[in-house]
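Write out this protein's structure.
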Amino acid sequence: MTKTLTFAACHFTVAFSVAYLLTGDIGVSSILALIEPACNTVAYYFHERAWLHFGHHDTVATH
């Protein structure tokens, strides 16, 4: 759980920083930093479904 929370904090910080650099607005940056991870989570769900659908059942690369 600690790793998940620190990753979430890191993700929020990066999203906020990029949005702030682009907009210069703390309010807009805060909203984007909250919305972006939610959108990313939904996109990841569909990515995983497509990944499994097209036959990529293993997640470990073999050489």
